[in-house]
Every structure is written in C-alpha cells, then in structure tokens.
Design a protein that fits this description.
Order of helices and strands: HHEEEEEEEHHEHEHEEEEEE
Strand content: 25-35%
Radius of gyration: 24 Å
Shape: globular
Helix content: 25-40%
Mean pLDDT: 84
Structural class: alpha+beta
Number of strands: 15
CATH topology of the largest domain: C8orf32 fold
Largest sheet: 5 strands, antiparallel
Amino acid sequence: MFSAFVRTAHPGGLAQMTRLSAFQRKAAISLIILLLYSGFALASELSPTVYHFESSVHIQNVGDKPVSFMKLQVPLLMKDSLYGTVVSEEFSLVPEEITQSDDGQRYAHFVVEELRPGEGFMLKISYVINMTPAVVEGGVYAVSPKIQWEDDEIRRAGAVLVENLKTDKDKAQSLLNFVREHMRYDRFSEFRNKDALTALQQGEGVCEDYAALFAALSKAAGIESRLVYGYRKNSRSIFERHTWVEIHLQDSWVPVDPVFYDVPGIDASAVYIAQWYADVPIRIRYSGGKIRAMSSETIAAAN
C-alpha cells in the first residue's frame, strides 16, 4: 500500500531561514509549497488500481456430537460493477458449484461430509479486483424489503418532492437534497439499519438508512434504484463497510452516496468496492452437532 510521508525540517532550519532576505524567504516558502503540492499530486497518481480482497469464514463444531452433511452457501463478490472488475478468485476449499440467482447474486456452494466435536476449518476466498469501472448494462434486481417504495407515506413524500420537475435527474437531485437535510447520521441510533419508512419517520440512522430512504423515494418517483452493499475507503485510507445507491438515469446506472455527496455520482478519486445488491448472509445447513461460524474480510492494495 502506498503511503505518503512528509519529513519535518531540522530544528536549525527555521533559525537559518530568519537570516534570509524577505525575497529569499518568499521564494523558499513558494518552493516548499510547490514540493508539498507535487508530493500530494504524486501520491494521487500512484493511488492503487488493483486490490486484494479476502473473505474468511471460520467454521467449528462446538457441540458434543459429530456434524454430518454440512452444506455451506457463501455469497460472492459481483464480477463487474461501476467501481471495478474481479479479475480472479481463488478458493481454499473447492466449491461443489457456483450459481447465480435471478437477481444477479453469485453463490459458492460447499459440502463437508463430517466434522467431529471440536474440529473446525477456515474457508478463504481471495479476489483480485481491478478498480477500472466496468460497463454495467440493465439487469433485473430484486428490490430489498428495506425499500418500501409502495408505502403510502413514502409515496406522498416523494410526490411532493418531485412535483413540477420534468427530468429524472432533477427529481433525483431534489430527493437527494431532502434525504441529506432530513437525516441525521448517528451510528448509535436505536433506529439504525432498519428500513426506508423508519428513516423517513425518525430522521436518523446510518448509511444503510440514508440509502434505503433515497432508493425508496426514487422508486416511488419512477426512477429505478437499488441498494449497493460493500466498502468505502475513508479519509484515513481505511476501508469501512458502507451502503449506497445506484439509480438508472439516461439509460445507464449512476452511483449515489447520500451520506458523502450532495449530487448524483461520486468523486472519481473515491474508492468503493461493491459486494452485492442485497444484504445476503452466509447460510449453513447440517445434521447433528452445533456449528459456530465467524466471518471476516480484509482489503489491501496490491504490491
């Protein structure tokens, strides 16, 4: 991972600088600013374009009886998205099959015949992601139950917000303005991670609540929308779990992040990794014993 460092000047540097003429001091300050600007520009140019994404699932039989015929269904990263393309994926355990549902979600299916008491294993799925955006065409995607776009209260609110607006772009902008003004971000809110109707009624929550409300209002206004679950790289260069929206404008999908941006679209320098269009869990079926499962994910820039 690329890191930018700015070395501090030697303590004697300031004392020496005070003996320079005013013109020399201005020239020196200008040079320092230029060097700092160049350093930041270089850091931007060298921003990683390939990332390694690793998903790990630790499975253990914590019961006193053997587990038999365990079937494990794990959601996989979407192959192509507006934010990048999965160019390779590797599995520590060979899947029985990889399927894709009608809404575009891919799943890997694994079978473990037996797991004795106390035994466990780690399943790792490693991806290489090229951050060059892919061309994403139409597609049919299941509407999340958190987007209650047919609810009367959401329909009424949406109708008022887009009244007399002609284009979908203007409607989307009006809806986005409302969500950003109406919502208060609170990671400790008792109403967080609920749904669009709760967000409209309570006016607080986290990214998923912002996204659900915007998506529901958009669909109520006749604009196709879908939630996107994944990661966003924050100002500290740390990837955090995040939820945002994609809407269909002028024959193409456009990302909208109601938490960080006040216009449709996202900054080209922002780094997003899309996992899926629904908050899908890992599913485990088995006989006997007692399974404990823990999952984790790591993201790192390619060397």
